Amino acid sequence: LCRYDFVEVEEPSDGTVLGRWCGSSSVPSRQISKGNQIRIRFVSDEYFPSEPGFCIHYTLLMPHHTEAPSPSLLPPSALPLDVLNNAVAGFSTVEELIRYLEPDRWQLDLEDLYRPTWQLLGKAYIHGRKSRVVDLNLLKEEVRLYSCTPRNFSVSLREELKRTDTIFWPLCLLVKRCGGNCACCHQSCNECQCVPTKVTKKYHEVLQLKPRIGVRGLHKSLTDVPLEHHEECDCVCKGNTEG
């Protein structure tokens, strides 16, 4: 239980206790902090045991940051506005964006971004909806979900398969097809369009009704029909699509 003499290691960024060890515990594994700080707490009572105490070995690790996409070697603030706008559009979260804009002090800037000031309190803060990182990331994700993405479309089997000599049931099926607009297109062109970048063929079992030749009635059978499904989509310059 480590109640008398123990060493406790805590991650200061979120207050998580990484572990507590004492003489009855096994040798702990290596602990790596999330940032450049780690909190070590040593607790001992008034008794002096004859056994050795605690020994800690530590090393400094160089941070491995994922390089943010940058169109040039210039700092972001020195880029032309249009170039910077295209670079900013490629990030998925606020943290990634701030890391790119201020690699040396991004944590401080992120804290300041969500800290209310006496001059102005945003409406979201006043109404209790101010949160850390989540709100803006949610807006970004909503744009992604409802822009150029695969979505459900109903297609007529006779038109899709070009089989006017046959009746299918159901008459229509749902398929994944690219849809949505490209208002936030990253390409440097006047007009973008939403096109599939990954297409798969899936088979669907349906009832086929086909007239019998020279005989009254319909031939009924279950058959597999192939339909294209768009798995991934992207906005590209109009006129640059294949075909």
Description:
This protein is of the alpha+beta class and about 240 residues long. It folds into 3 domains: about 1-65, no CATH class; about 75-145, no CATH class; about 150-235, Cystine Knot Cytokines, subunit B (Ribbon), CATH 2.10.90.10. The protein is built from 6 helices and 8 strands, in the order E-E-E-H-H-H-H-H-E-H-E-E-E-E. It has helices at about 80-90, 95-100, 105-115, 125, 135-145, 155-160; strands spanning about 5-10, 15-20, 40-45, 150-155, 165-170, 170-180, 190-210, 220-235. It has a 3-stranded antiparallel β-sheet, with no helix packed on it. Strands 5-7-8 form a 3-stranded antiparallel β-sheet. A two-stranded antiparallel sheet has the order 4-6. Helix 2 packs across helix 3 (about 105-115). The longest helix has 13 residues, at about 135-145. It is elongated and about 105 Å long. The N and C termini lie far apart (about 70 Å). The model is unreliable at about 70 and about 130-135 (pLDDT under 50).
Q: How would you sum up this structure in a few lines?
A:
By secondary structure, this protein is α+β, with helices and mostly antiparallel strands. It has helices at 81-88, 94-101, 106-113, 123-126, 134-146, 157-161; strands spanning 6-11, 16-21, 39-43, 149-156, 167-169, 172-179, 192-211, 218-237.
Helix content range of the residues, please? 10-25%
Number of helices: 6
* Structural domain count: 3
How far is the first residue's CA from the last residue's CA? Answer: 70 Å
CATH topology name of the largest domain, in short, is: Cystine Knot Cytokines, subunit B
**Uncertain spans:** 68-72, 129-133
- Relevant CATH superfamily of the largest domain: Cystine-knot cytokines
Q: What is the global morphology?
A: elongated
CATH architecture descriptor text of the largest domain:
Ribbon
Q: Main β-sheet: number of strands, strand sense, barrel status? A: 3 strands, antiparallel
Strand order of the largest sheet: 2-1-3
Radius of gyration from the alpha-carbon trace, in angstroms? 30 Å
* Overall pLDDT confidence: 76
Q: Give the SSE order as H and E letters.
A: EEEHHHHHEHEEEE
Strand content: 25-35%
